[in-house]
Design a protein that fits this description.
alpha+beta, eight-stranded antiparallel β-sheet, two-stranded parallel ribbon, about 30% helix, globular
């Protein structure tokens, strides 16, 4: 290796060492921020009905003309996510003749370990869906004042095998966003950037949550399915989310960088 190569190698090693040192310092000094959602002291259970946490994000039992049930946390999530993760799960149903009348509302709230929050696309692909479309949307929220919630809408397809040996393609509408005590965004990269920015400037690690809403439908029913999801989000968000945006403004996310996992 020539002299220039050695200098480059030494520079890289020094930068890695400095970065590692800074991360250790920040971690030793950091304070975990408050959640931007309502967290209550009620047990959350796994698929076997065993309590996994004494706290959960409280999702509303009654929204519009939907009935609902508390849902458990899947074992695969518990194996994958940090132990101090807090969850919220609820399934909503409406008897109105629509073939797929279930909408699942889910919350993953990080603790001291930021890896509780992952890239949302993994959730759909992990369930066997293939993402076919992605677009930013805004959902008007009326309470406690009118503002526009920034969200991301994914459309996906899943092939289901029937008992007779045939197959049918199902569609999924998946809407998600991220929320902390002071921020709302639909962008995973922006969330990562703002987390680093807040930690460096204030020493506070923002306690981010990842909120998602999932429903299924037949091909051709995507617009109707999304409208149902939009209405449920608009009605339910004021019941469990504390963080808002200024009245009647379009949200502007922090600039995206290459910090996403």
């Amino acid at each position: 290796m020539n002299r220039d190569g050695i200098k480059a190698l030494v520079s890289v090693v020094v930068l890695i060492a400095l970065s590692a040192g800074l991360l250790v310092v920040f971690k030793s000094r950091q304070v975990l921020g408050k959640a931007g959602l309502k967290v209550v002291e009620k047990p959350m259970t796994n698929e076997q009905g065993k309590s996994i946490s004494q706290f959960r994000v409280e999702l509303p039992e009654k929204i519009l003309d939907y009935s609902s049930t508390n849902e458990t946390v899947k074992d695969v999530e518990l194996d994958y996510l940090p132990k101090d993760t807090t969850y919220g799960r609820r399934g909503y149903f409406k008897e109105d003749g629509f073939l797929f009348n279930r909408i699942d509302l889910s919350v993953v709230l990080m603790g001291t370990d930021r890896t509780s929050i992952h890239k949302p696309q993994f959730c759909l692909t992990g369930q066997g869906f293939t993402i076919t479309d992605q677009e930013r949307v805004v959902i008007p929220i009326d309470q406690p004042h009118r503002y526009e919630l920034p969200a991301m809408k994914l459309t996906a397809t899943q092939e289901i095998k029937l008992r007779n040996g045939g197959t049918v393609n199902l569609r999924a509408i998946y809407v998600y966003w991220f929320v902390s005590e002071n921020r709302l965004t639909s962008e995973h990269k922006s969330r990562m950037w703002s987390m680093v920015e807040d930690l460096v400037k204030t020493g506070v690690m923002p306690r981010w949550a990842y909120v998602s809403c999932l429903t299924r439908c037949m091909p051709g029913q995507e617009a109707v399915a999304y409208e149902r999801v939009r209405q449920l989000i608009a009605a339910s968000v004021p019941e469990f989310q504390l963080t808002t945006l200024p009245s009647s403004t379009t949200p502007v996310a922090p600039p995206a960088t290459a910090l996403a996992r």
